[in-house]
């Protein structure tokens, strides 16, 4: 029974939040005349000592005391006697754990948010540096149109900015205090729930005691935000892995973020990126796991809910580590600018520019221009040359109206420079967007 019942093995992680909650509760009890002011100051002093004890690593955690709440309360009573036994007035472990866990998740949100901002900053810096450096843009992982390396970096800045938005939404919605809901029905003691809510930095007390002790939406929203963000990080990780593979060689990662092979001396394996890609699995697993725990639970608290903590702790750790590794890799990677430029123009990447020229200059309908361009691509492909290597006569054999000017749009630089539509890849746009982000993130 003890083994399945105890949560102290993992919920000790919330000791700071538990002590914070108890201090706020005791101060409120005294102010309301529910316990003596003298008892409250003994509780306050005792909890402070316990905090230093835990901090120093010599707190005697006891499995038989089940969880962090009872461990701390029992220790308090050991130290200060009768006054310690008054702390639990008008409170239950149900509202206590709900409060502690909210405080823990809120702290985690603040930590992760700062880390995401740091990854965004790293990406925006690389974007500013490479605002005008072309690289191949892909769809279906097939060469599509040239883009700039900076533009590609900023795509991830946008994703991560939405991740921060999700965290902010989650934080705003969760910021209500369950303390004082007691076991499930509220309490007969004249608590001031507004006072404890304020002391703990919540916007207000929760409005329904049954909901307050049995709601874990805040943890699920945190995990949803984590899962989506981890998915984003996995996409960047996957690109980093592809980009530093030998056939690509788009970027190089230093020894700091790669490992060697014990048998193949030439290997530089992008392990950090692979692990960021893989961590997505356990983070998504945590979300699905907790959704499954909560599904169908009748009101109010049930011990099932003790299974909420490990997935959240684990996902928070994995997310934080993935963000740190990603920030490190983004700052470490060295784009091979010459090679990126070379490949930006290969694979008929400027075919769309040719078609657009036919529309703009010869006033062909786009569908016709698309067809003409297709025939020119087929001709070049048959001769194993690039579009720009076709002669004017070749071009005119397909569309007599074509002039020498066509060659001006077939270069990679002309192609990216022409993509001036808002949000497009033109170097000026990219430089502006990078500057905007650097200012936002400064
Ligand atoms: N360790 C418990 C948990 O994490 C605390 C709440 C226990 N409440 C109870 N009525 N047994 O959920």
What does this molecule look like?
The chain contains 19 helices and six strands. Strand 1 (134-139) and strand 2 (142-148) form a beta hairpin. By secondary structure, it is mainly α. Helices cover 63% and strands 5% of the residues. The longest helix has 37 residues, at 93-129. It has helices spanning 2-5, 8-11, 15-31, 37-56, 68-80, 82-85, 93-129, 149-174, 193-199, 209-214, 217-243, 271-294, 309-332, 337-344, 351-362, 366-382, 392-398, 412-418, 427-441, and strands spanning 134-139, 142-148, 176-177, 204-205, 251-252, 334-335. The protein is elongated and about 100 Å long. Helix 3 (15-31) packs across helix 7, helix 11 runs antiparallel to helix 12 (271-294) and helix 12 (271-294) packs antiparallel against helix 13 (309-332). Residues 7, 11, 67, 93-94, 97, 301, 303, 305-306 line the site of arginine.
